[in-house]
Write a structure and sequence with these properties.
heterodimer, A: alpha/beta, Rossmann fold, four-stranded antiparallel beta sheet, globular, B: 390 residues, mainly alpha, 78% helix
């Protein structure tokens, strides 16, 4: 059963220069207990997708069309009160940069307690304390951390505590938005193991957002590659890695060093992400595509995912040119 | 933490010592003295003047007088007022202080509370129409020329509408056959307000441990109502029933000055709160709080405003000294004979003992206020606790 279905989601930010289409026609779905990765360069709309799942986008961000069906309810249509119920007890987020995710003047335990209190107002103080101890135990922290202030913790501890916070209201889905960006590699590895362990123990669904394609390979069952607000390739993680179809995915893979096999020169993609203001729906990758066809150059082909293989979808313009 | 507190106290004592010596030397360097007028009286021989100078020890060299003054100061001997001879500075201050304390404690609390409240609402409603209008009004009242504004308020509410009294802190005709001195009433009003606010504070502290938010809110509301009912009972029984009409008279006279100063003073706090809070609202933890599903009001108060509190408390502590020294302008315009007028008067007439006593009193209070500020920083922002230990 699908716990989350995102259908034709369009989201744009209203700015003084015009409307910025940050998320364009994004469709994906997620089964219970499954993990889904979203990968792409900075500014491609990964975080915008995550934020719109909880309606946490900035004030000027508007969902123009589409549906987000979570647990049978369309999140886009919920009012503030109903949204608050879904937030954290339905979907919770591990934010990027745990350093700043904590209120600096409130104790860690109190901040977790606050979330539990909001969603389970009838629980007693002792029950909540036990719950927090249990959460800390799951993420490998000492229960004395609850009485500490955020600045007294190291970066890795804060990130673990953030995971504990995300688990505090028994969510069904966790969105991990680049949870390891600010950490060094060793701690990154520990945190990733922690997330995977938690996911297995509690049977959670996970959306993992990262620009680090290696992490996505390690963490997820299915994945989507985003470029300029659209999904350009989506499918089973193994398939996508073994047989990338879209030019952008290929470039992304070639820009990442491999620790096995012969040394290869890393390729990088020239140019920069296109402006998303007032674009038509033509392939925005054509400016940077290494082998654009005439159709791409004339901008006469629309961006649209089509089926390439079983559980593997690719943007139609890259089907032929490869 | 204790080490930090002791170090601060030690520093304060040194600062106070310097303060005493400096103010004595400064007052001494004013040309002339309070007895100069004796020389102008042709009826009096010059010896009389010399005798008075000798009597007060003013013929001694400066350093000797400074040492004597400081010795006497710590014995609690402030000498006699030159101008109101048989009375001591302590008596004069004891008479003036309750009036100033009452008025300015009220003004400060009301102004900062409304300022903080309005500031956080302004920041929260950033971009709305009401925000623009309130900000414009705040900037106006922040920059308005205060004496003019106070006079306009007096003219409008006191004369034109005739709702509120002009000047004075009581109607003398009501007090002719009063068994009480006005100071007694002031003191019992201050006592009452102090006790009521301490009770309210205790209620807040003790309810902090209640886990369920709605239960906590109910308990707090109940305790607030109990305090309100209790104070009604308090003012309507025995001794207090007699004092009530006089207290009401003073309270009635306080409305206009409190309102006027609040209108001028709240704006600074409101604008300061608005700026700091908008800065805080950009922080990631506000997003975390929203994602947790917490209500907007709670995010505003508990997360955003709480982090914007520090600069507001700083400015509050700096202003709090006016509770004691009042404000010469306000006291003059509203003819409120408090500490501000006493200080101005004693300095102008070179009544050095009174001036010194008032100044050192303010000095002690200011130092204590700053000490409390330092302690409350550590309470408000745990990050300061660590840095301050070294």
């Amino acid at each position: 059963m699908n716990i989350l279905e995102v259908k034709n989601l369009n989201m744009s930010y209203e700015t003084l220069e015009g409307s910025v289409a940050a998320v364009k026609d994004v469709t994906f779905s997620l089964k219970e207990g499954e993990s889904f990765g979203i990968v792409g360069e900075s500014g491609c709309g990964k975080t915008s997708v995550a934020m719109s799942l909880l309606q946490l986008q900035a004030d000027n961000g508007k969902i123009t069309s589409g549906e987000i069906i979570f647990d049978g309810k369309d999140i886009v249509k919920l009012n503030e009160k109903e949204l608050r119920d879904v937030r954290w007890s339905g979907i919770s987020i591990v934010f990027q940069g745990a350093m700043n995710s904590w209120n600096p003047v409130v104790k860690i335990g109190e901040q977790i307690r606050e979330a539990i209190r909001e969603h389970y107002p009838d629980k007693t103080k002792e029950e909540n304390t036990d719950k927090i101890d249990e959460l800390f135990n799951i993420v490998g922290l000492d229960s004395s951390i609850a009485d500490r202030y955020p600045h007294e913790l190291s970066g890795g501890m804060k990130q673990r505590a953030v995971i504990a916070l995300a688990l505090s209201c028994d969510p069904k889905l966790i969105i991990a938005d680049e949870p390891t960006t600010a950490l060094d590699v060793v701690i990154q590895d520990q945190i990733l193991n922690e997330i995977r362990k938690v996911q297995n123990i509690l049977g959670l669904s996970l959306i993992y957002i990262s620009h680090d394609i290696a992490v996505i390979a390690e963490m997820t069952d299915n994945m989507a590659v985003m470029y300029a607000g659209s999904i350009v390739e989506m499918g089973n993680t193994k398939n996508v890695f073994a047989n990338p179809q879209h030019a952008y995915t290929k470039m992304l893979l070639e820009s990442t060093p491999s620790i096995i096999g012969p040394k290869k020169k890393l390729r990088s993609l020239d140019g920069e992400p296109p402006s998303l203001i007032n674009n038509d729906n033509c392939c925005l990758f054509s400016y940077r595509c290494p082998s654009p066809t005439d159709m791409c150059k004339n901008r006469s082909i629309e961006m649209k995912l089509i089926k390439f293989d079983d559980n593997h979808y690719v943007d139609q313009c890259c089907m032929d040119c490869g | 933490m204790y080490k930090y507190v002791f170090r601060r106290i030690y520093q304060l004592i040194i600062v106070f010592f310097l303060f005493l010596v400096t103010s004595y030397v400064l007052f001494d360097s004013i040309p002339g003295n309070a007895f100069q007028s004796l020389l102008l009286n042709p009826e009096l021989p010059r010896e009389a003047y010399d005798l008075v100078i000798q009597l007060y020890g003013l013929d001694k060299p400066l350093y000797e007088r400074v040492i004597l003054y400081i010795q006497n100061f710590f014995r609690g001997d402030f000498g006699y007022s030159y101008v109101h001879y048989p009375r001591t500075p302590i008596e004069l201050i004891a008479e003036r202080l309750p009036r100033t304390l009452m008025l300015f404690a009220m003004v400060n609390i009301v102004a900062f509370y409304t300022g903080f409240l309005i500031g956080k609402i302004l920041a929260w409603r950033r971009g709305s129409k009401s925000e623009t209008w309130i900000t414009v009004t705040s900037v106006f009242s922040y920059t308005v020329f205060y004496p003019w504004f106070a006079l306009m308020m007096l003219w409008f509410f006191g004369y034109k509408l005739d709702w509120l009294p002009i000047g004075k802190f009581l109607y003398p005709e009501k007090w002719y056959d009063s068994p009480y001195d006005s100071d007694v009433i002031f003191v019992s009003m201050i006592k009452f307000i102090a006790v009521a606010s301490i009770l309210q504070m205790l209620a807040f502290v003790y309810t902090r441990n209640i886990e369920s938010i709605s239960a906590r809110r109910n308990v707090r509301f109940t305790s607030f109502m109990i305090i309100i009912i209790g104070s009604f009972a308090y003012w309507n029984t025995g001794e207090m029933l007699n004092q009530k009409i006089y207290a009401m008279d003073i309270a009635y006279h306080m409305i206009l000055p409190v309102f006027t100063v609040t209108v001028v003073a709240f704006a600074g706090t409101a604008l300061l709160t608005r700026t700091t809070m908008m800065e805080v609202m950009k922080d990631d933890f506000i997003l975390t709080a929203r994602a947790k599903g917490i209500s907007q009001k709670r995010i505003r108060d508990r997360h955003a405003a709480r982090n914007a509190l520090l600069p507001v408390v700083t400015s509050f502590i700096f202003t709090i000294v006016t509770i004691i020294d009042g404000s010469v302008l306000t006291e003059t315009i509203f003819s409120w004979p408090g500490m501000g007028q006493l200080i101005l008067d004693s300095v102008l007439r070179e009544d050095i003992p009174v001036a010194m006593a008032s100044f050192s009193f303010i000095g002690v209070f200011a130092l204590i206020a700053h000490f409390i500020a330092d302690i409350s920083y550590a309470y408000l922002d745990p990050r300061i606790r660590i840095q301050s230990q070294g």
